[in-house]
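INFO  loader      accepted 1 record
INFO  loader      residues=86
INFO  predictor   begin
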Amino acid sequence: MPRVMPSTPKQPRRHKDERSAAAVFGANLRAARLAAGRTQAEIAHAAGVSQNKLPPIEQGQIDVRLSTARKLARAVGGSLRDLVSD
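INFO  predictor   done
INFO  writer      dumping tokens
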């Protein structure tokens, strides 16, 4: 009997100019951090996140929980709205 593999949901196609929410958040977080003159270590400590998590967040490689996004926004002295706006 042939083995049936479960189907994986297909990701919606994005227009080539459209960035993921993680990419927008990460780019805005990095810009806000640099504008504030803070290091990744300082922001990670202030937000209570692991320092090794900040680079992939800023690069848009991983999603963060809403609670973490709020902590990061506070750590850079901005609002969550600023960090998620494209």
